[in-house]
Write a structure and sequence with these properties.
Two copies of one chain form a homodimer. Helices cover about 40% and strands about 15% of the residues of chain A. Chain A is α/β, with parallel strands linked by helices.
Chain lengths: ~350, ~350
């Protein structure tokens, strides 16, 4: 299990209206205001030792540049940015809307963009949003190295990662229990008599795909079932790739009798493939899909609460901006197995 | 039918690298450079007569402030903004992604936000994106008065409206043939023997909802079928409201034998209601829905090409920025009837 830390995260006396100023930081660090400004804005001309003293003062006081006073002074609308992975993936719809609703409740606009699963584009977009003076960023990361955000975070941009963890920086992260959810879903298939179970997932470099594969392996191991390499297929979620993977597993000499699909894009294609098969094949999918209950059989899924992921991340972001958080946390939300028929089919042989 | 204008829209000699400058505008209008700058930036101190002369010169020359040179000068990443209606509506997924792909092909970032169907929020968001120096805006309008964008358009922000028309300004608009699509869908039901046909749509102040209702009425009139007021229900697309509307039509003394649903959010709820009915009720939905072909019966729809709407709008936006367009157009894309079973059921009585 990933380590989950939860700490008392309110620092008394750091709420709106009573927040530390640059002057407080300067006084505590024993330096001038201009020096604090240089450190906060990542400008040159500060010795490493002085920078360390200023950073310590900033951390001790919980100072953030990005206060509402600054927003009001500049006459800007407060705004936060959301870096998505794919604008057309329905999983992100409720997540985005939840982030937007929290933003609106805080009087802030939400502006989004998509990385299209490209780490360079994620960076370009995140920095472009910062350059456009967002007060905070919610990031669904495509890459695994987020040190490029350190100067922005130092400059007071609140940052929360959601759906997948941050890489190489210490940051707030809100995830689903991808490992546990997949393990439960596969154990459910095993409980209905399956032993030859396929796993079709997204590219292994994607955290969620890797975690769900780990869950599949754990469930199989718990049941003492050796896994055949041909039962596991990771790659893009394009319909062509997924269809080929499913058809190969189903036409092998000893075909799989059940498939666990690693996300909603994979599930939709596998449902189409299974509808063409002459024998029944069990299916459990990660992520819920619309109208799953009206298909025949209904589709059993491990559902994430996509809206709760977005809401939790956004609320955490505004608490960072409020100055009421003291340390980054990793928050994991539970998944839920919803049985509708496809995951309860017995093995065909 | 809405009027559709298509004009020769390339002006020779106005492509990148050979574009009119403010100096050209000043020379043609017979005014100083500062005066042109004032008009372009919406600043005071210009008499109405002078402003008119400058505007005429701007139009004659096809001048736009927002050229790539300016972008490069400021060292910014080029970007365009997209104002959506609802982040969680799957109809907008392919549209957003298509806009993003065109933006990327032009080396520009896309940043989005959602109006949540609130005209004030649409305005706030559009202006916030302009303040963040987007080069152009694709807007799915929630409101019906877009004069607030006139200063931005004058200042060179390219602007295209998509899915719904602009209000009270002359602007590029890319729409689906909502009227024709709905008329065809309802005529299809009439062709299968239905006379008591219900229409459940979105709020009538929304252009697409009003056009689709008009298409319903036209098809009924063409067939000489008088429409009972109780067969038409317009309002929010919340599942509760839609369910109530469908159940009322189905439990009336002379119940409808078919329903035409005005968009994908309505269709999904009506599919659920119909699945609970003891008798078969025909259904044609506006907008395609995922897995519609695997439901029983398959769902017959009038499909819009959501990606083509986004692509067409974005390409038009970049041609505005290129200076290769001379006058706003209204472009209408065709819809497509996809028969899958639900729309071909005969009347139950």
């Amino acid at each position: 299990m990933p380590e989950i830390t939860r700490r008392a995260d309110r620092l008394p006396g750091t709420r709106y209206g009573n927040r530390p100023t640059m002057k407080d930081v300067a006084a505590r660090a024993g330096v001038g205001l201009k020096t604090v400004s240089r450190v906060v804005n990542g400008e040159p001309g500060v010795t490493p030792d002085t920078e360390r003293r200023v950073q310590e003062a900033i951390e001790a006081l919980g100072f953030r540049r990005n206060d509402s006073a600054r927003v009001l002074r500049k006459g800007r609308t407060a705004s936060i940015g959301l870096v998505l992975e794919d604008l057309a993936d329905p999983f992100y719809g409720p997540l985005s809307r939840a982030v937007e609703e929290v933003a609106r409740a805080h009087g802030a606009l939400l502006i989004n963009g998509s990385s299209a699963e490209d780490p360079e584009r994620e960076q370009e977009l995140a920095l472009a949003l910062c350059a456009r003076r967002v007060d905070g960023l919610v990031v669904i990361p495509a890459g695994d190295d987020h040190r490029y955000l350190e100067p922005e975070i130092r400059a007071g941009v609140a940052t929360v990662f959601v759906d997948r963890p941050a890489g190489r920086i210490d940051a707030d992260v809100v995830l689903s229990d991808n490992f546990g959810g997949a393990r439960d879903g596969v154990a459910h298939l095993i409980g209905h008599g399956h032993r030859r179970i396929g796993f079709i997932g997204d590219m292994p470099r994607i955290h969620t795909a890797a975690e769900r594969l780990r869950g599949y392996r754990a469930a199989m191991e718990d049941a003492g079932i050796p896994v055949d390499d041909r039962w596991m297929s990771l790659g893009t979620t394009s319909p062509e790739r997924v269809r080929r993977a499913a058809e190969e597993m189903l036409s092998a000499p000893e075909p799989v009798t059940a498939i666990f699909t690693g996300n909603n894009r994979v599930t939709v294609t596998v449902i189409r493939v299974l509808a063409e098969q002459s024998r029944q094949v069990a299916l459990v999918g990660f992520d819920d899909i619309e109208l799953a209950e009206l298909l025949q059989p209904g589709v059993t899924v491990v559902a994430q609460d996509s809206a709760a992921l977005g809401r939790t991340a956004a609320e955490r972001l505004f608490r960072q901006l409020d100055g009421t958080l003291v340390a980054p946390e990793r928050i994991e939300l539970p998944t839920r197995l919803i049985t509708r028929g496809s995951g309860e089919l017995p093995p065909a042989d």
